[in-house]
Every structure is written in C-alpha cells, then in structure tokens.
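Hi R.,

Here are the chain sequences for the assembly we discussed:
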Amino acid sequence: IAGITQAPTSQILAAGRRMTLRCTQDMRHNAMYWYRQDLGLGLRLIHYSNTAGTTGKGEVPDGYSVSRANTDDFPLTLASAVPSQTSVYFCASSPGPGANVLTFGAGSRLTVL
Amino acid sequence: GQQLNQSPQSMFIQEGEDVSMNCTSSSIFNTWLWYKQDPGEGPVLLIALYKAGELTSNGRLTAQFGITRKDSFLNISASIPSDVGIYFCAGPTAASGGSYIPTFGRGTSLIVHP
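And here is the predicted structure of the full complex:
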C-alpha cells in the first residue's frame, strides 16, 4: 500500500542525546513536511522540503535539522534533545509545493527525559 | 505563528446530534482543507475546497468555503461514535521564496456519547 512510513513508532530518549526520526514515502511526491503535535497547539510545521535537494524552515525549526538527499526520504534530526521536544512527530507529503492535500504518516511518539 | 483560528476547541455531543465547527484566517486563502485525525493515527483528508462560496459534501460531512475567503465551516450531520477524533482545518500560507506551505488550525476535538 502506497504511503508514508515513519520510524520509530515511539522512543524514549535521554536529554542531550542525538535522535533521527526517519520518514520514507513511495508516492514520488515532491514536497515533504515535518510537523509536531502537542496538546492544545495542533500541528506545527518544523521543516519542509519542496523538492529533493531543498529545505525550508517552518514555524518551530529551532533544535531540529532536516535533509532531502532524494525524493523518497526526509529524516528529521534532533542534535541534542531537550524535554520540550517531547511530542508526537508527523511526516507528510504532497505531490508538489502548494498542493496542500497532504498524506500523513502514522507518527512517531518521542519522549525526552 | 499560526494564522488559523479554529473553534470550538472541543465538543461533547450525543450520538445523532449535528455538529458545526469553523475556522477563520487573518488573511485570504485560496484553498481550505478539512482533515480528521483518529486516535493514534495521522490526519486524513476529508474535504478540499477551492472556490469562494463552494459547498461540498462527503457523506454526512458538509464543508463551505466562506465568501470572504477568510473562513470555512464543517458540519457533521447525525453524528455516530466513529466520528470521534480531532478535526483540523488547513490552508496555504506564504513561505519564503514565493512558495506556500500548509498551515493547520489547532483542531476541534469531538467526543460522541452513545
């Protein structure tokens, strides 16, 4: 079934550790996005990529980095995790930038202690 | 920060009741989308609206693109227990370089009592 695969599903991490959340899509979508979901705050955009080789900052980019080496993969890295990064992270994709019909992954629940 | 104001924040209703929620923007949108998130899953698109004044239905769901292009409404008729979840509105906001990125409202959490 075509879609987005996120890994890990959940993770508990000590503060200060480095963590990479993986996201892979098989729909050949050009645009990909990382959101975090926190209670009462909805979905907030962290970083995005309109096409392979380009990335952009969203609403809450601090403490996160991304790369887009190819069309299918869009990993999100926390260089030195802090407790405020405890959240549920969703990867999404769309056929192109501005084409706002997003397909979401199932999410990665991250707890930073 | 986010430019979409979604209300109400939460709703507790009885099965069979109708539900209304809305979303307003500080700027004009060319597209409005409504997503539903089931517990433990990612959001899934319900309805997409592309024209001011447009009224679109998907089963028991009806959504409207406000004439001012700054608001949208989602109605659910005759609610059932599986309508439980978080409903998000979304629209494109301008990003650097002339592109647009999808921005979401904070969501409306719906609980349906049997």
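Chain B has a mean pLDDT of 93. The longest strand of chain B covers residues 85-94.

Let me know if anything looks off.

Best,
T.
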